[in-house]
Amino acid sequence: MDGSCPLCNSDLESSLHLFMVCPFAKSLWFRSHWGVRIDLVAFGSTSDFVNFLLSPPFLVNQCLGQKEEFLLYGAILCDMVWKQRNQVLFVDVSLNVDGVSTKISCLFSEHNIPKGSTTYQQVPSSIQTWIPPPGMSFKINVDAAVGPRFSSIAVVARDRRGELVFAGSMKVNTTLPLLAEVEAIKWALSLAPAMGYDCIIVESDCQYCVHLLNDLAERPPWKFWSLCSELRSFLSVLDKVSVMWVPRQCNAVAHTLAKWSLSCNFFGPFDFGNYPACFSSIILEESRRAL
């Protein structure tokens, strides 16, 4: 080995280069929802970089939670860069900045559970299946599946008997998991006024997105600022509509439809009788449990 960086082959490998100077790493930093231009920050040593992760200058006036989120993202990014470096060096895989960026965002979404946030409704994590809505209300389950060039979002509306009211999927032009999840919630909220039920419950398994929409004191990332503000305003005038977090196992029907649509590149509303088999089986099983 000649000692050059295996990710760019343009400079000698070092910790500073690998995580901050390498074009591959710089691209990943810029794709974060902070849009970090890591090349504009001067690092004299790795300790400077650690201090940057612990106390980023652009978040100096933000709450501790924002800084903890950035530290989590930075730790995940560095781990993924190191793993990609080893795969290139020892397994001879090709660089895939889109795939790595998507994986970082997914891991960040999974691990970024807001601390001490109990201001919004959520289904207990001990619940293992979909629960029908009470009385004359109905539920809209939403989810997103992220691909290398675009994402798929799905919405599934059911009444208290578990009977299907509407199911559909849509292609969205983003590969950011959090943005795709928010777009799915936006679609569900746009359908709510025409449903005509006493109460509408939108369920998502993205806890961070649900937290952003319900906790008005939480400042959304700048990439989602406009969309989150729009949805918060929408929710403020829809007093019979709520957005709740549920565990993944309670959101299987929307999760399955989003994944199927992405893999088959098939989008749109689904008429009764032409649903994918993987989707229909979940609907039937959960409707039987609702009776």
Keywords:
2 domains; 291 residues; alpha/beta; 6-stranded mixed sheet; 10 helices; 13% strand; Nucleotidyltransferase, domain 5
List the helices and strands and how they pair.
Layout: H1 15-21, H2 23-31, H3 46-54, H4 64-91, H5 97-111, E1 138-146, E2 151-158, E3 164-172, H6 177-191, E4 200-204, H7 207-214, H8 225-237, E5 241-245, H9 252-264, E6 268-269, H10 277-290
Parallel strand pairs: 1-4, 4-5
Antiparallel strand pairs: 1-2, 2-3, 3-6
Helix pairs in contact: 1-2, 2-4, 4-5, 6-8, 9-10
Architecture overview:
This protein is α/β, with parallel strands linked by helices. The protein has 2 domains: 15-111; 138-290, Ribonuclease H-like superfamily/Ribonuclease H (Nucleotidyltransferase, domain 5, 2-Layer Sandwich). 45% of the residues lie in helices and 13% in strands. It contains 10 helices and 6 strands. It has helices at residues 15-21, 23-31, 46-54, 64-91, 97-111, 177-191, 207-214, 225-237, 252-264, 277-290; strands at residues 138-146, 151-158, 164-172, 200-204, 241-245, 268-269. A 6-stranded mixed β-sheet has the order 5-4-1-2-3-6, sandwiched between helices. Helix 1 packs across helix 2 (23-31) and helix 2 (23-31) packs antiparallel against helix 4. The chain is elongated, with a radius of gyration of 21 Å. Mean pLDDT is 85; it is low at 116-120.
